[in-house]
Each structure stands twice: as structure tokens, then as C-alpha cells.
């Protein structure tokens, strides 16, 4: 069709930032357990069905107007009249033994492949050969089409909370539901929400980076807020290669909350503590632990002091990961103190103040995407750690029960590791994603985070 | 190490030509049959072994000096001091039922992924899950590192002609053997040999395309040779996308020779006839068959009239595929007549004449790689069909018998289909590779070529 949908400036930024090394697609990985009456050749039959019925609704049928000039200022979305469903929906399989390790390797590879901009920029892979007759869905979408949180909500439209429902249409064959649109407007503390804030701060200019330079320029404006802590240089804050490593870990929320409460911390604090413990141990093994503690940036919901209605604003805080402290309990206490202080500071601000502060924090990360900037623009923090709400009910794909919901976010130049956590009913699902070359053995972060939880639990006995 | 090995101008051309859509890597696919005593978990144990012993010899340890500026005139090869063997040697698996179709789909996808220029530009994939306990090796290497024929010879160093030999080292762990180097110098009629000729014609200039323009400019020089036939425009002579389709077919050489002989043709003629029949049928189904016959360019060995020693020269001929003729026997006879005429013409030339003619034929294909040239530079032919000699003995990978040896060559802008054929002992192995979008249902070429052989055989009864 001839209609062109303009890109909003933030989406455009994600296109303009795309390089061979920094690929701006996000994803999710979900393993599924078969029902007792699982039909043999379930996935084969599914593909037959998919080939027959290729009804596809917006945004899944949208492709770039000028795919050869990705960063064109006239870029927009047009409908793909030759939608090739077999390209977008794929079957894959795991080599034996089909364990979590092999799943991690395959998904790391799939996520290292760039998106084809001549088509609607998404793919979904049904991965068979997981132990126990299980399969997994790996989903990948370019951030310019939908952000991770909205994409996840749209994907869920292809799942059902009813294990008996065996004819749920594929997510791309569902008409855009109002419910989903509304969900995407919730004030969820995501990285995208923060980038939107930074963009609003930058005003109506299409050129975010130029405006951010202004925000950073000292003296000129009333930047009286706390300047970002100086983060130490580290192996995760270098140029990155195009290859990724991905690892996952799942924890019961109750178990995490119990430990957090025992130390008078929050769920976010324990997320930081487990990430911190993993990073400390891995970096020690790599002989690359900085003397100064690593710092993390967290998107959070904050109640501003000038909002009488008690509404929330999305903001960002900077927390110490206390990776210089050897004792796990002391380290956890230092993290708790650090986030508490940061939140106290933020909640003393007006809504506008929170926005300004967040834009300031985001600026170095966005500036680092200018070619040659990495190493010159000092990182304001070492790693982004996001904690995003996910599905509250168990979900099923035609009777197969979704076991977990692991996010894959975007490592970028200068920020070669991202830790995103999504809740799913009574579990917290960690997705560790990083650059294959600058952070070897990333998979160990998943193992070490579990050990870290056991350590904190044992210290309570 | 600090030593830089300069690229030769032809290799440099393959780097300079690399785009998101035209990827200059070649490959091969080989299925293997297990021995009676096949160890369980053969491939798993192989990977364990590979991880322990990462001895890697030239050229497999060479990476580009300036990977971020691919077409740098100062480009060269340097040794990779951080060779990451797990990146280059990979395990994959097929979804059920693990048949040839699923193998084709997986290899098409793997071949659609671009090579990482920050590492030695090659990958080898051990693909398990083929029916009957079989596995396949898919190998991929950038043409700038080695050409397809040399690459295949080097790969063979990791195979054995002895089914009892179970400890053959991996191909990259073999010291470069003199034997292999010599083999690569044989006068084999490959596309690469032709491009080398075209390059020699262009003189010592690094800028091949500029020199070729001169070769094409009429009048100035003594180009009295037959001008290329004008090929019809067709769907396989358009811009291409970055995605590939790959299909394979294997024929007993005796069967092909019997049919060829019965019609007084050559093995090359029957290769053309089967390709022609497939293209005609597929294009009819797509409602895209040109009125005028499609033409093919074939690299061939020719005995020049001025070589008293009876030596061979590599040249190229242009043959009609006679796709305008409905009757298969008449079509075959027209093809035979066409190649006979072309060869007669070529063998009447001096060695220099053959070189000039070949350079002339190659020029439009090389010119078509200049951005924007496709559609303006008229194709001299529609498709390249190469027939390359392969292994003469059955080969084994640690007791697993190699069943076939299917080449994957390079579709380029304006030439969206390539048919390369390799002999393996008593079989001829077809590799059909094309652009996924401009040539839908390419897989049918494999099916139709088999039907075409049966048709010609039946006509003889």
C-alpha cells in the first residue's frame, strides 16, 4: 500500500545507530513444556499451518521505506506487499544433548545475525530438540519497530492463559488490540522510557546527540543536580564486536524477597547484588576487576515530590555495585545503602528535575554511539541493569506451558554488557547479554548469580 | 604477529565488492554416512577435542589488518593472536524429519549470514540430526582468503581416503602441504581462473573495473573477436537481496555420460541441458520465461592453436540454453550445437586471443558490481554454470563416509543464480544457489533437473 508511516525521532535514533557491531534489535527467549497429550510432530504441523495462513497485521507487516539508506531523514514504514512468512517464522533445532548450554549457544548466534531491513524487521524461531520434549521460542525485533516491552506485550497476544486452548492464532495474525496499546502506555521503568525522557529534554530537535551535548556542557544551564559518579574503566566499557553471548537464570521471587527483606533491602537490591557477585567473580578470574566499584544504572519508578496525585514518574538511579568488597553480606549492605541514597535524592526532586537528571545520566551512553567517541566520552556508569514487569499469569502456546521469559537487550559501543530481568508469575528471569569478545565466559554470570544467592541465604542461617 | 601479507589485486576485488546484499563467501556442503561402529555422541566428543587442541595454520589463522575499512588499499592479512576456535567450528542440528529439505533450509540460512571480518573469515558447521544417523559439514570461507577450488583442496586435507583412519586432524590443524599448493596451481576451469585472466588483461592496475571499461570500449583496440551474444533480460538478472536459497542434486556420472553420448554431446552439455530444463520449467511456472533463449557462460579448458606442447588454457564459452524450445530432445541438440560452435571458435584462437575473449565476457559481470550499474550494463549472459573437478577417491571423516560434495558459489548483483557442479568419484554434484527473493522456489531446479534426465533417457528407449 502507498501509505507511509513516519518514524518518531526516538525510533529513528535506533536506526541511525545501527552498525555491523551495534545491532539495535531486542529479543526474548521462552522455553515451553509439553502437555501430557502433546501431539507428535507438533512443530512440523505448526509450520504447515503457518504456510497456509499468512494473515499479518500491523506492526508485523511494516518494513522500511528506504532500506538502502537506513538513516534517511525521510525514513518511514510501509506495508510489505510480498510478506514472506517462511522467512519470518522459522524452525531450528538444538544439537544433543539439547540442554540449556546448547540453547544459549544457538540463541547467542541467532542474536548475532543482523536484521534484514528489506523486510519487516522481525523473526521468530521455534527451536526443537530441548531435553524432555520441550521447545523454545526465540523472538527478535528491531527496536525501531517496537521497543522490547511493547514487543513482548504484542507477542503475548499469541499466547493464552488457558492450557486447554489449542487454536490461539499466531501473534502476528491478531488485530492490534486496544488492551495491548494501553498496556504499552503504562509507566514502566524501561531503558526506552528513559531514552524518551532524554529525547524530550533534548526538545523537538531530530538531532538528539547535538542537544545532549548542550545538556552536558557545564555552566550554561542550571545543572545543579548531582553529577554522575565517575565509573571505573573496565572490560565491559570498550568497543564491541558484532557477536554476542547470552545466558539466562531464573529465581523464585519469594526466595529473592526473603533474602532482600532479611537484609532490609528491596527486590531491585537483590537483583543488583546477584549481578554484582557474578561480575566480581568473573572479572577476578579474567584478572580484570577494577579497584573502584563498578556502578550500574537502573531505570526506576519514582514518586516526585510535586505530584500530589501520587502518580509515578520514570527516572534513573545510579548505584554502586560494591564490587570492591569481598564479603558478600557487606557487599549487599553497601548496595542497599547506595540505592537508598540515590532514591532519596531522586524523590526529593520535582518531576522536571527527575527528567533532567535522567537525561543527564543517559547522555554519555547516547554520546558513546558517535563513531570514535568510545574511550573519550567517560562512561557515567558501567552497566545498565533493568527490572521490567512481565506476565502475571502462566501462559500457554497451544497447551505448551511457558516456563520462563528471558529478555535479550542491546549491548552497545562502550556498554558491552546488559542485564535485563523480567518477572513471570512467581519467578524473576535474568537475561545476561554481552559482547562475545570483550566479555569472555559471560555464561558464568548466570552460574555465579545463583551461587551468590545461596551464599547470602547461608549467611542468614 | 606483526607480519602483514599483502592481498593480491583479485582478492582485494572480492573484498571491495562485499555489500550487505552481495556477500563474497563461497562454501560447500557434504553429508556423511556413519560407519557400522559409529560411536554415540561422535560430534559432541569431537567438539570437546576441538576445544582442547586449537592448533591452527595458515591460511586459517589469518584475519584482515583493517577490518573496519574493508576496501582499504592498504588491506592485508595478519595472524589472529586470539584465535577463537569455538567461533569458527560450530555444531548445529536439523529440525525433524532431518531430510534434505530441512538441510537445504538450514544451509541457505547459514550461507545468508555475512562473514565477520574481525576474525579469520571462515566457519565450519557440523550439522547433526540428518536421517539415518548421518551428519553434514557445511563450510564457508570468504573468497578473499581462498577461492572455492583451493579452499576445497585445503579442506580435503582434513579427510582421509582410508575408512579405518579415525584420528585425522582437523583441516585447519594441518601444516600447509606442498601437494595442496601444487594442486591449486592446476589449470582448472573455474570462475576464479577466468577472473584472474580478466585481471591480467587489465594489466598491473589495481583498479580492475577501470581497465575493463577500456577493454570494452570499441574501436580503440584490436577487438575483432565475436562480441558476446545479447542475453535476454530475466528475473535472475536483477538486483539481489542478501538472502539465499540453496538446493542440491547428485547424479551418477555414468548415467549422464550415457545420455550425453547417445546424443553425441559431452558431459558439460548434459549439465547445461539439465540446468536449462529446470530453468525453463521454473520460469514458466513463475510466468517469467523470456521469449529469447537464456544463455550461460561456462569456464572451460581449451587447447589453443598456438600451443605446440598441447597444453591447456582456461577460457570461457557462451552457450545457448535453448530455453525457447519445448521439446527436450530438440533442446538438448540445440545446446550441443551451441557449445560445439563456441568451442570451435575458441580453439581457433591463440592463447592471447582466448584470454582477451574471456576478459571481454567477464567484463559486464564485473562492471555490474558498480553501484547502480545493474539494469544499465547489459548482461552478456544470464547465468554462470561451472563444472569443476573434485575428489577422485571416496573420502572419510574419521570413518564417516562422505556421500557428496555440493558447492555454494556467489550470486551477485545482476547474476542472481549460480550453478556449480563438482565431480566426486563417480558422481556429479550440483549446487544451485540464488537470491531468495528474485528466484522463488529455487529448490525446484534440483527436482526438475532430475526429471529432465529421466525425460532424455526415456526419449532414447
From TrEMBL, chains A, B:
GO terms for molecular function: diacylglycerol O-acyltransferase activity. It is an enzyme of class 2 (transferase). Residues 7-271 form the O-acyltransferase WSD1-like N-terminal domain. Pfam families: WS_DGAT_C, WS_DGAT_cat. GO terms for biological process: biological process involved in interaction with host; glycerol metabolic process; response to hypoxia; response to nitric oxide; triglyceride biosynthetic process. Keywords: Acyltransferase, Glycerol metabolism, Lipid biosynthesis, Lipid metabolism, Transferase. The keyword Transferase applies. One of its GO terms (cellular component) is plasma membrane. Pathway: Glycerolipid metabolism; triacylglycerol biosynthesis; Lipid metabolism. InterPro entries: Acyl_transf_WS/DGAT, O-acyltransferase_WSD1-like, O-acyltransferase_WSD1_C, O-acyltransferase_WSD1_N. Its EC number is 2.3.1.20. It catalyses: an acyl-CoA + a 1,2-diacyl-sn-glycerol = a triacyl-sn-glycerol + CoA. Residues 311-456 form the O-acyltransferase WSD1 C-terminal domain. Belongs to the long-chain O-acyltransferase family. This is diacylglycerol O-acyltransferase. The lineage of its organism: Bacteria, Pseudomonadati, Pseudomonadota, Gammaproteobacteria, Nevskiales.
Amino acid at each position: 500500500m502507498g501509505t507511509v508511516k513516519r518514524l518518531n525521532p526516538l525510533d529513528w535514533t535506533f536506526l541511525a545507530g545501527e552498525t555491523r557491531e551495534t545491532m539495535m534489535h531486542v529479543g526474548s527467549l521462552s522455553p515451553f513444556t509439553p502437555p501430557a497429550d502433546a501431539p507428535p510432530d507438533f512443530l512440523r504441523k505448526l509450520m504447515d499451518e503457518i504456510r497456509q495462513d499468512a494473515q499479518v497485521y500491523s506492526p508485523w507487516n511494516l518494513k522500511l521505506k528506504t532500506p538502502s539508506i537506513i538513516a534517511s531523514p525521510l525514513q518511514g514504514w510501509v506495508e510489505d506487499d510480498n510478506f514472506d512468512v517462511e522467512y519470518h517464522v522459522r524452525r531450528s533445532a538444538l544439537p544433543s544433548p539439547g540442554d540449556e548450554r546448547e540453547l544459549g549457544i544457538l540463541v547467542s548466534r541467532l542474536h548475532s545475525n543482523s536484521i534484514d531491513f528489506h523486510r519487516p524487521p522481525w523473526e521468530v524461531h521455534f527451536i526443537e530438540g530441548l531435553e524432555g520434549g520441550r521447545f523454545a521460542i526465540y523472538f527478535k525485533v528491531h527496536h525501531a519497530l517496537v521497543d522490547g516491552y511493547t514487543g513482548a506485550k504484542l507477542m503475548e497476544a499469541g499466547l493464552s492463559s488457558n492450557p486447554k486452548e489449542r487454536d490461539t492464532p499466531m501473534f502476528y495474525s491478531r488485530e492490534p488490540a486496544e488492551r495491548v496499546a494501553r498496556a504499552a502506555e503504562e509507566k514502566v521503568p524501561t531503558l526506552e522510557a528513559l531514552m524518551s525522557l532524554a529525547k524530550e529534554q533534548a526538545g523537538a530537535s531530530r538531532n538528539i546527540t547535538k542537544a545532549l551535548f548542550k545538556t552536558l556542557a557545564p555552566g550554561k544551564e542550571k545543572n545543579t543536580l548531582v553529577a554522575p559518579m565517575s565509573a571505573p574503566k573496565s572490560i565491559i566499557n570498550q568497543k564491541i564486536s558484532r557477536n554476542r553471548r547470552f545466558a539466562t537464570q531464573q529465581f523464585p521471587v519469594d526466595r529473592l524477597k526473603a533474602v532482600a527483606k532479611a537484609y532490609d533491602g528491596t527486590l531491585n537490591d537483590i537483583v543488583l547484588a546477584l549481578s554484582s557477585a557474578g561480575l566480581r567473580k568473573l572479572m577476578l578470574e579474567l584478572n580484570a576487576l577494577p579497584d573502584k566499584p563498578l556502578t550500574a544504572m537502573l531505570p526506576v519508578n519514582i514518586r516526585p515530590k510535586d505530584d500530589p496525585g501520587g502518580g509515578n514518574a520514570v527516572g534513573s538511579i545510579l548505584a554502586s555495585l560494591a564490587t570492591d568488597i569481598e564479603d558478600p553480606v557487606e557487599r549487599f549492605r553497601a548496595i542497599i545503602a547506595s540505592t537508598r541514597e540515590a532514591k532519596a535524592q531522586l524523590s526529593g526532586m520535582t518531576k522536571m528535575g527527575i527528567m533532567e537528571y535522567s537525561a543527564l545520566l543517559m547522555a554519555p551512553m547516547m554520546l558513546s554511539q558517535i563513531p570514535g567517541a568510545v574511550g573519550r566520552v567517560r562512561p557515567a556508569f558501567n552497566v545498565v541493569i533493568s527490572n521490567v514487569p512481565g506476565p502475571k499469569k502462566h501462559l500457554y502456546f497451544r497447551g505448551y506451558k511457558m516456563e520462563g521469559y528471558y529478555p535479550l537487550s542491546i549491548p552497545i559501543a562502550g556498554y558491552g554488557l546488559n542485564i535485563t530481568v523480567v518477572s513471570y508469575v512467581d519467578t524473576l528471569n535474568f537475561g545476561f547479554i554481552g559482547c562475545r569478545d570483550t566479555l569472555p565466559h559471560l555464561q558464568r554470570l548466570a552460574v555465579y548469580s545463583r551461587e551468590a544467592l545461596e551464599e547470602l541465604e547461608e549467611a542468614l542461617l
